[in-house]
Amino acid sequence: MESQGLRVQLLHKNHSAREGRARRRGVAEAHRHTRRAEAVIVTFCYTGLAHIVGADSKCGRDKKQVKKVMPKRRQNWGGSSYSRNGADDQRRGYNNGGWLDFGEFVFGIGNSRLAYQARVRDGCCYGYTEGSYVIFKVFKPEDRWRRVGGVEHVDVEMQRRVRSLAEQFNEECTPTKYGEACPVICRDAALGCFQDTHFLRDQNCNRFRVDEGTTFLLEREIRGDFTKFSSNSGWNSGIDPILEAFSHWSWVKTGGGELVCDLQGHRGNGSLPYLGQDYYYLLTDPAICSSSRIHGESDLGSQGINAFFNSHTCNEWCEHLDIDYERPQYSHTSLPRAMSTSYHSLVAPNW
Question: Same structural domain for residues 104 and 213?
């Protein structure tokens, strides 16, 4: 009886041990499948939607878990965000191994250029850090066919010149709105170049080819409502006296040699702060009309300068700067007053 009882006891222990080993194997197998599934799930979050590239077939495709690979933006005033306008002084990235992730459909339309949205991926690109929302601009196909070249260094330098003049204007004028500072800021820009051939859509949704080596203008995206304030042929909105005074002041400041015009961008009203400021003008893609026509395609020369003064009525900011009596002696012009004009559109094509 004792030997039979011992045998029953040993059988019971062996059965319990087998059950324990089976349970442990089951748990280990489940963990291994989970780790395998997590290793092959990859997502892209460019438009806020997560797209799964691969998943383990043994894990049940109805219960996929998505992991975001793009880190959250830090909460500071410098970075770009949908709740504020990012500052250009953050364009300090040096690891330029990144690339631009962009679509083919046009985002904005100018007189001679088309604008497209993009985002910097996998490092820095032209000084913009990973995750930055940017805009790149290329000439319209019809302007390239008319032998207008690509974007050049002169376009970048012109925009930086406007940026410098705006900083000087803010120091001398100290513009305000509703008792608070209202500075004029111009976006910084960089010159980019396509490393491969791409296809984009124009303003009519027609597909066109952009060859390798084509240059483009690159700058940080502006959030909020986009407004046209003035042109380079005398047109202005009539409701932004600070910007009209800025254009007038730029001509005085440069001794009658240059006039900043063709202003557009975002008028800060408190909903999208810029470096903590509620009121500001954040400008992009301006023009300078110069007596020697040295500032690229949008420089209409003396005709553009005369067109501005032919329609400009000095306001309280011109008086504040004591420039209301400083104007060209004669400001006659034959330019048609339009919201945007290029020099090329004013002359006959040289076929």
Answer: yes
